[in-house]
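User: Hi! I have a protein structure encoded as tokens and I'd like to know what sequence might fold into it. I'm fairly new to this, so please keep things simple.
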């Protein structure tokens, strides 16, 4: 047989056996790559299934502590907390965000009591779960979300969360200059080791709908968030946002939503030596669940394929509502 009659290289050769596929795998996903977002609600012993997010519930703080323990047992290193503030505590000025006994702070303390230092607690900094208008910041007389006045409140909100025991402050508001302001306040208030994970490139996305139902801001929001969240058409601008947040003292940055923005994750990793996280947001979760319900495929396989894509693009980790499912699958 002449040499020309067979391929010089057979890429299928290393795919022929399971052991070989394992050996040649370029990217791995582990439970340590996962951050589990959890929704907090009032009361004790309360679980409220969220219709917009099938399989996800709001939990009262005791339930949140149980979920945190579950995360520890599954090898998930960090949870992210989001409060469903009671309607009567929402206001124009989001004052509830600054109270040391608000839902968020109570949840942080309860988790810390239950799990000690075994789990990282990430708290979201933005005003939308606390405002009567559902915007992430304060409005001026014409309804514009003000930047610098909002940053002043975000700083107090961040310190309030750090005092309660948060490990990672995650500003999701997209105001300019907030990372520097929060970093300075953390340093000056004796929290030098509290991290900042900046939602650096956060897009004005149609994929946040189910989340807004979960934190009760969806029905309140009039208009959109396009004057502060990014235009989905832009990528160079995302790199500027990320560069600014690094310069202002962010320990890590986030790209949000996830799958539609893998190019941003990839470019950020090429450009900067900084940990990049992705948020697989509520609409991405709900679409997979809707697809599974419609019979388009197997949930486990769909979820794992999407999560490995984030790692392949260069992510250090992923915020995902699928965290407990994925961790269980990974542990076999
Ligand atoms: N600042 C609020 C915030 N923090 C995280 C999300 C979305 C998360 C998700 O959809 O899962 C949002 C929604 C928004 O900006 O309207
Ligand atoms: Mg910015």
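Assistant: Happy to help. Inverse folding works backwards from shape to sequence: for each of the 332 positions I chose a residue that suits the local structure. Here it is:
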């Amino acid at each position: 047989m002449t040499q020309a009659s067979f391929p010089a290289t057979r890429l299928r050769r290393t795919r022929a056996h399971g052991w070989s596929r394992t050996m040649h795998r370029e990217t791995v996903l582990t439970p340590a790559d996962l951050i589990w977002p959890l929704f907090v609600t009032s009361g004790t012993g309360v679980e409220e299934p969220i219709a917009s997010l099938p399989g996800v519930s709001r939990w009262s703080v005791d339930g949140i502590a149980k979920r945190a323990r579950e995360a520890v047992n599954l090898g998930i290193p960090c949870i992210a907390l989001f409060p469903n503030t009671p309607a009567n505590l929402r206001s124009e000025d989001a004052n509830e965000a600054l109270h040391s006994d608000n839902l968020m702070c109570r949840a942080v303390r309860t988790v810390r009591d239950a799990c000690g230092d075994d789990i990282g607690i990430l708290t979201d900094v933005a005003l939308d779960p606390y405002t009567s208008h559902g915007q992430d910041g304060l409005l001026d007389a014409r309804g514009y979300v003000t930047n610098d006045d909002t940053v002043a409140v975000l700083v107090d909100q961040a310190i309030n969360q750090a005092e309660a025991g948060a490990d990672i402050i995650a500003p999701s508001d997209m105001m300019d200059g907030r990372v520097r302001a929060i970093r300075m306040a953390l340093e000056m208030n004796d929290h030098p080791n509290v991290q900042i994970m900046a939602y650096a490139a956060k897009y004005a996305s149609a994929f946040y709908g189910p989340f807004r139902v979960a934190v009760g801001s969806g029905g309140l929001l009039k208009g959109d968030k396009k004057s502060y969240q990014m235009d989905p058409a832009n990528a160079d601008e995302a790199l500027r946002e990320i560069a600014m947040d690094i310069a202002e003292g962010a320990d890590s940055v986030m790209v949000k939503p996830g799958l539609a923005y893998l190019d941003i994750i990839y470019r950020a990793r090429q450009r900067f030596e900084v940990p990049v996280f992705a948020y697989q947001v509520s609409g991405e979760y709900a679409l997979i669940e809707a697809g599974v319900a419609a019979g388009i495929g197997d949930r486990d396989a769909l979820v794992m394929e999407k999560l490995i894509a984030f790692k392949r693009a260069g992510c250090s980790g992923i915020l995902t509502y699928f965290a407990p499912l994925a961790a269980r699958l990974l542990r076999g």
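A useful reference point when you look it over: The domain at 28-253 is CATH 3.20.20.70 (TIM Barrel). Feel free to ask if any position seems puzzling.
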